[in-house]
Amino acid sequence: MSLASLIRSLEEVFRGSGVPSPRVDAEILAAHVLGLSRTDVHLGGGMEVSRADEERIRALARRRAARYPLQYLTGECEFHSLAFLVREGVFIPRPETEVLVEAVACRLEAGGRRPRNLLEIGTGTGVICISPARALGWNAAGTGGPRVVATDISFEAVETAALNAAKHGVENLMQFAVGDGIGFLKGVGGGEGFDVFVCNPPYVAASEIAGLQPEVRDHEPRAALDGGKDGLEFMRRIIPALPSILAGGALAAFETAPDQAGAVTRLLREAGALETEVVRDLSGRDRVTIARMA
Predict the structure, then answer these.
(1) How many separate domains does the chain show?
(2) What is the residue-averaged pLDDT of the chain?
(3) What percent of the chain has pLDDT over 70?
(4) Is residue 144 a contact partner of residue 179, using CB atoms and an 8 Å limit?
(5) pLDDT of 111
């Protein structure tokens, strides 16, 4: 069978199963199995696919048609123009989170002062702490770069983040640890406090989880999604603790749902924030809340 015919066949199956981006997913699965880029798939539509490769592609396609996450099938995802490893049981990075990374990187660059250290809670695949390290050219040799501490309650997430740090050459900057967001904080600052805090917390209201896409609802870790009754439970626990673990003038940044920016801003001000700012995503929705702490 030609590659073009196979792609059309998969696209039809995916469309009938309600897969959100049927053509893209068909191309990505084919590229994954054949060891090609998506550009190669576009240009090589006339190439013949062997029976063995066709069967491998169709086996993955059946799982995708059943709404199993594409990223778990391929074992990777793209974030901030970088390829990251991902696996079942670990939260899949979203394009919206790039807004958080870019907002933090932009403010650190504009400040003209390299932070001594950075803390992330709920690191998942590690994209939020690894991407700024790459974007800002932090010295991966461990001299001149900040110390980065990233925690998660999931061992699978911490292990995946460590692999991604090594993949992108910044492992010498990173310290990953399994720990609860509250219980681990007090002893992790090394006595000096952190200059930067970043977090993409669970912020989906519990009542809304049933309405999520099957890929998310049925397969991604609920602990990375469920933010309690109104989606703010995690932030109500973490934000009051920030003054005890952050240095004076530290930058704190949270990704939030669009309707949560006001509530998170209030929580940060109650915790002593001197300045707050809300950053919108490409769709014009409030996505990131940033504070300069006292």
Answers:
(1) 2
(2) 92
(3) 94
(4) no
(5) 75
- The three state secondary structure string of 222-233 is HHHCECCCCCCH
Question: Does residue 71 belong to any structural domain of this protein?
Answer: no
Edge-first strand listing for the sheet containing 147-152? 174-178, 147-152, 117-121, 194-199, 246-255, 286-293, 273-280
Range of the domain at 12: 3-66
Cα separation values, 197 from 67, 69, 160, 162, 289, Å: 34, 29, 21, 19, 12
CB half-sphere exposure, 31, CA atoms < 13 A = 19
Are residues 119 and 61 part of one domain? no
Average pLDDT of the residues in 186-203: 82
Report whether pLDDT(64) > 80: yes
CA dist 105 → 13, 65, 136, 148, 200 (Å): 41, 37, 7, 14, 15
Residue where the block lists tokens 């880029």: 37
Least confident of 121-125, 189-193, 240-244, 259-263: 189-193
